[in-house]
Amino acid sequence: MDADGVTSQWFNPDVPNVARIYDCLLGGKDHYPADLAAAAKIAEAAPEVVQRVRENREFLGRVVRILATEGIRQFIDIGTGLPTQENVHQVARRVTPAARVAYVDNDPVVVVHAQALLATDEDTIAIAGDMCEPAAILRQVTEQGFIDLTQPVAILMLAVLHFIPDTAQAAQIVATFREQIAAGSYMVITHATAGDMSEGDLAQAVQTYAASSAGSITPRSHDQIEAFFDGLELEVPGVVPVAHWRPLSPEPVLAERATIEFSRLRSGKATPTVTDGPVFLGGVARNTSSRR
Ligand SMILES: C[S@@+](CC[C@H](N)C(=O)[O-])C[C@H]1O[C@@H](n2cnc3c(N)ncnc32)[C@H](O)[C@@H]1O
Questions:
Q1: Which residues surround ligand 1 with Cβ inside 6 Å?
Q2: For residue 271, how far is its CA from the centre of ligand 1 (angstroms)?
Q3: pTM of the predicted structure, to 2 decimals
Q4: How far is the C-alpha of 286 from the C-alpha of 229, rounded, in Å?
Q5: Where does 8-286 sit in CATH, by number?
Q6: Which one, 29, 61, 107, 183, has the greatest CB density within 10 A?
Q7: 159 C-alpha vs ligand 1 centroid, how far in Å?
């Protein structure tokens, strides 16, 4: 740890950092040249990724609004990422002004940003936590009654489980959360799939993440991702490309076309459809069991 309590591993601007790469892909400003270079390498292998991250954020907005409308008042956002637009509490509060949101990330730099920009009132907290220790996360967020696990809660794990290489471990993490949440709670997951990427392009993207702060990325199949929801009741339409999950218009609206420089790496192809290249699959499932 440094004198200020934050591990220097997270501050190294020369090592691409997954939160900052994601910020780059979203067109944000919180990144360094090494992050931009990594994002460009990923976008070179999979130009659609720029579109995919926007679809992922739009999915987050739709789901949080729907769950808040369904009466969910508590949200735990695991793998929060750097603050961007339409963060969970901002969406939820438009429906439920008193919604409580716990932001959790294992990157202390993300947590510092979230504490400064997101946790600005008593109903929002931002804490350091590793999803590999789900019980510890639940202990922290329930401290002093911030989150009440006897009441329904939404656990959001968006674009984060693919950083766990071991599928059984990823499933165990989700199961630990599932076993601790009250009936009427929801689990929301999005996850990368390789889609129709060529072996060479996939290898380039995977190698780029291997050299990042996360150490790896593990795209999974539809069936593997669907299995994370075992023991829960999947909401319609199931596990689908995130842009197909209850789109706001009859045809899935693709997120605004990327404006950042490396999106120009695209050659020849028109704007991707929601199933070209790598795809984020997403689903929302309800806990119907009242074991707690
Ligand atoms: C790609 S961003 C996703 C941000 C946001 N969830 C979204 O979908 O827009 C992934 C985030 O997960 C965090 N992360 C990666 N591994 C994690 C872990 N083991 N525990 C908690 N957070 C993790 C990263 O630091 C990063 O902020």
A1: 18-19, 22, 56-57, 60, 78-81, 105-107, 110, 130-132, 158-160, 163, 214
A2: 27
A3: 0.92
A4: 9
A5: 3.40.50.150
A6: 107
A7: 7
